[in-house]
Amino acid sequence: MTAPVSMLASRLLRPMHWLVWGPLCVILAACLPSYGMTSAPSPRRTCPEPDRLAGVVDWYFPEGSEDNEQLDLWCQEVGPVVIDSLPMASFGALRGGDSLAIAVWNTDAGAGYLEAFVRTEMGVQCAGPASRLRPSATHFVVLVQEALRRTEQLRPVDESWSVPPPVKEERHPGSRLGVDEVAAKCGLSVVYAPAGRNGGKILDGKGEDKGTAILSTLPLRDFIVIELPYEAARRVVVAATVHDDRGDSLRIASVHLIATPPPWRVLQTGNSSRLRQALATVDALHLAEARRSPLADTSLQATSTVIAGDLNTWSVRETTLKRLFTHFRDSPGVLDEPTRGPFPTDHLLFRKSDLEPVPVDGVLPHTYRRVDDAYYSDHHPIMAWFRFGGERETAADSAASARGSLDKQPVR
Amino acid sequence: MTGVVLGWTVISGSTAVPGSGQAPGIPVVVVGSSLGLASGAMLGATGGLIPCSQTVSGDRCFRLAAAVGGVLGLAGGLMLAAEDRERVEDAWVGAGVGLGAGVLAGLTMKPFAQRVGWDDVLVVGFLGAAIGPVWRGAAVGAGAGMLAGAIGWRVDSDRTFPDALGLTMVGLAVGGIAEWMIRGINAQRGNDIAMMIPMNLRF
What we know:
The structure holds two protein chains of two kinds. Chain A is an alpha+beta fold. Chain A has helices spanning 2-12, 15-30, 66-76, 114-120, 179-185, 263-269, 273-292, 319-327, 395-405; strands at 37-38, 57-62, 82-84, 99-106, 124-125, 132-133, 140-151, 189-197, 207-216, 221-227, 236-243, 249-256, 304-310, 346-351, 360-363, 369-370, 382-388. The N and C termini of chain A lie far apart (78 Å). The relative contact order of chain A is 0.15. By secondary structure, chain B is mostly helical. The termini of chain B are far apart. The A-B interface holds A 4, 7-8, 11-12, 17, 21, 24-26, 28-33, 161, 164-165, 232-233, 260, 262-264, 266-267, 269-272, 275, 314-315, 317-320, 322-323, 342 and B 33, 37, 41, 45, 48-50, 52-60, 62-64, 66-67, 70-71, 74-75, 78-79, 82, 113-117, 119-120, 122-124, 127, 160-163, 188-189.
């Protein structure tokens, strides 16, 4: 027994073998994918047009050329960013101490019945500029992923790698509207950044793209668009801030990470495609914060920030989520209900400002929940209520807590 | 694909005589251990895919799993190749069959998956090539992992479908890598290639 083992050991320890294979193993174990972001576009980028959004939107790109080549191809096929920073209707100001509802929903392009969701769950009586909030409703922000936009500004193109086929939709009652059309119909402010086409065809004179959006009853400001590192499809994060009447701010980012990276990307990235995109989001938001922060120490965060969306996680223990929680340490935890089929894909994370007094306290207790009606989408929406400024609990907070803890039945 | 052909060419061109007791030449040792390394690394990566995605450092864990699998596969391949050219030939035949099956599976999958390119078809082929030489161990391991995963999923409410799938893949990897080691040790001892599976079947 001893002889074969010693013979084996001597063979395994031959320097020739380990000189070849040893470094290979070390290289394999040590490589980490880059997720650095920059506000300076790669010289080869032709899209978005450099001057078009200058001064209105802070745009962040992945560093290096490889991601940008692919992102540019996808970007060329989509329409422009939509910004209606002021709500068309007069919903009034958010007062200090008021609570703000934040809803997060992947609408699966045109499948999700967004107008019904806004009416029923958020309490808007949609009537264009005459739209009103129901008396029991609070101001709100809705973060939409896979938001649909229909526009005459798109040209017909054949489906290809950078023009994916349209999402297969279950038809809902009522009109099939884009996110900007819902915003106009319900008098809301909106920012929408397209990520990719929803098929190449033109229907009724309009082409379709899909991306991330933010709808609100409040004015939106400080727009940020983050093109995430390319992982088999272009993904875009859109962010903006809302404010109360004392000037306290909350930055809100609508995030959609890659679902299933193909096998080659799994090997190339060490199965960290989603992690790469999540860390890129954090990096870009940090750059944006450092650029705008009044604080000398750029490691401190001046603006309270919510990032939420479809993170496409398979479980609540996934690396991406764990790493995001280390950055967004004031998050409300995870929901114990799945939001897409059996998977907990959708999440809301929060980090308070490092300023004193804290402008936004955080998620009100017992208000973070899943909406049981999926409104024809393949994802359930999730919701939470935040309180702006002040230590005291207001009557509005109590009402919001009570409302959030109820399992409401949808009314259509 | 090129690797399999190249490996086969090197083995075929070797002057060592199978069963003669003559030690195979360096080219055979190199291609045998290469196959062990590549197969073990691919199996390690496959096994680490889901469990590592549940850790804080999932990316590093994944690469570590691939590296550990690679080192163990290399050790098994080296032990095998150092003793007998015939066993290396068998392993390469298995890799070739696995590569073909993998590429076929990738080609079948391609029209139905939106973002699967030719490089992805090749990766599935490589996975097939990794399993091919040690398919018995991989199959037994995957079966055991699937059973354990299914039981865990049913019994423990905290376990979900990804956990069950993850255990199946861990089983596949452990079974495959274990077969590399067992084959290597058997080759060193001069035993038969066949792997003993300790199990009782009752009907």
